[in-house]
Amino acid sequence: MSRSVKFLYLQQEDVIACGGLDMPQVIAAVERVYALHEQGECIEPEAPLIAWEGPQGKRILTHPAWVGGDVNMAGIKWIPSNPENPRQRGMPRASAIIILNDDETGYPLAVMDGTIVSAARTGAATGVGAKYLARRDSEKVAIIGAGPISRPQIMALQVVLPALREVSIFDLDAGRAQGLAEEMAGRYAKTRFTVTPSAEASVRGADVVVTVTSGVPLDRSYLEANWLKEGVFVSAVAVNDSKMEVVEQADKLVLTNIEELDEPIWLVGLAVAQGLRSRDDFVSMGSIIVGQDPGRQNDHERIFYNPGGMGIEDVVAAARVYRNARERGIGIELELWHEPLWT
Questions:
Q1: N vs C: which end of the chain shows fewer Cβ within 10 Å?
Q2: Do the beta carbons of residue 295 and residue 246 sit within 8 Å?
């Protein structure tokens, strides 16, 4: 009997070829994992962070997780980030590697580029939220921030918002915003993409608002409640971009991970710590999906949603890619060992 342990290596192009950016499928996978999480079928430990040169400097975030149910797989995402990479090197701010492990033996099944998986599942998280929480007649979306993960946000909203007609984009780098608008206009001919001179100009009148910047400290929050129209759905991917008044005035507060309420470094945790909102005011996305709590109940609700990133999202999205790769014979098979040195 062979005692060799082999795993599949997938580079970024392989991940894309195996459906890493198939947004309807990624949305379905993320929706499924939120339900599994609500049902106690996942393990989501605290994500360790290594940071140097301050909270906005160089850092590495790790997301370990286990997903049960029909996924039945463990994994980890290792995602280093340097905000200076785009300016100094013309390279992405962040990169990522995902390792998937067999639920039974613990041996590795795959090592893959996680940059696409991470970006896609971040967009899918907004997509799932909009499916349950945005008005069905939402026509205008405001995107604040024009970085790489803004693209899958737009891709996901195109899937779940049938009435979408306009996307307004603001970024401190106007050229970057223009580039994103032109790129997306080439992909979605029926949607008008515009660039605005300010965040306020983008947000006013929007049915859906997505803050997807690289994040700002709490003392530099800029999104004001009086910019938001009645019935708005806010997907606070960058949660601290919103001022506290946005949370205070929201009619419904939804999180993907209720544990964030225990962390006062984030806006939602600070709101509870300061007694501005009760812990009972918040519900999980999973509880809405499984029918324990209602989603949007009328067209007037202002809904604040924080899709805080979780390792279970990475594992479920990467598991799809891995299984597609196995079926299609894509990737390079590598050997961890041919024979174990010790047993």
A1: N
A2: no
